[in-house]
Amino acid sequence: MESLKNEIKKLIVDSLGLEDLSPGDIGDDVPLFGDGGIGLDSIDALELGVALRKKYHLSIDSGDSGAREHFASVNNLVKFVQIRGQKTED
Amino acid sequence: MSGETFFRVPLYRRVFLEDADGRAATDLGFVDPMLKRRLSPLAKLTLSVAYECSKGVPDPRLVYASRHGEITRTLSMLEDLAHGEGVSPTVFSLSVLNATAGLFSLIFKNVEPTTAISSGRSSFGYGLLEAALRFAEAPSRPLLYVYSDEPLPGIYGEKHAREGASRVALAILLWEPAEGEVYCSTSSLNAPASDEAQARAFLRCFEHGCSDWSDGDKTWRWEKSEGGGEYTTAVGTRTDAT
Fold this sequence. Notes:
Order of helices and strands of chain B: EHHEHHHEHEEEHEEE
Number of strands of chain B: 9
Low-confidence stretches of chain A: none
CATH superfamily of chain A: ACP-like
Mean pLDDT of chain A: 87
Shape of chain B: globular
Helix content of chain A: 40-55%
Structural class of chain A: mainly alpha
Radius of gyration of chain A: 12 Å
Low-confidence stretches of chain B: 229-234
CATH class of chain A: Mainly Alpha
Structural class of chain B: alpha+beta
Radius of gyration of chain B: 18 Å
Largest sheet of chain B: 9 strands, mixed
Oligomer: heterodimer
Strand content of chain B: 25-35%
Number of strands of chain A: 0
Number of helices of chain A: 4
Distance between the termini of chain A: 18 Å
Number of helices of chain B: 7
Largest interface: A-B, 13 and 12 residues
């Protein structure tokens, strides 16, 4: 759980090119999108979707009304990956 | 038939940056950090010269020229597709030739019209012609011309190696009162094709007063003169029967 959390934080920093942040700077429950959090935007959401799909073989349906909820914070992403993900070998 | 084109470029300011090792120190303090992280090395260099060259003047119209544009991004998308992987939305959204021109508009909240030009080995020269033509439409207002290119990735072969091994960006502000001007002309002289990149040949005219470049078919010539004097609209063509 803890290692998956750190892995996802690292994935966020690396895939989105967040030069000024280290994985440890992202709080578990801090909002990733919008004001008052990390401040990611809609392109980041798509980019993160591609990265998650690649790493965990997630299928994210663009019509999934829960997507906003799954992507809201690191903790939510961890739950999402645990339920729906399938880690690739690398 | 052979033709000749000639035009004058009033030089208010010019800025040239070269990045041989991918580590050019560019001050991008004017770009929001959340946007800056998405910029390619070419976009960073391009925006740097654009910013330096247009500092303190009213919002300029923009002409952007590049032979290959964001070719490195395009290639990375093609590679992802070849490997059956998804395409990065960031890379996709910033891969087109006029992406950097669009970023310029967004960053400086400049809503003046923009043209993007690509024209083979002569992309720099035709971009400058477009800039002179558009400047002549309204010479009381500044026009920013920006050219940039980077070496083609190795997968495209050695054929283009002569175009130079570094990333370059050149910005010219066309406006009055000009510090000097460059008289540009093309002719159908049969000179052997030049080995250097066209923009570099252009820059030589500032050292030697005059320089030439040929694509093997058409020869370009640039002559520099000091002082501006009154700007006269001078873009034209001559056609000689041969």
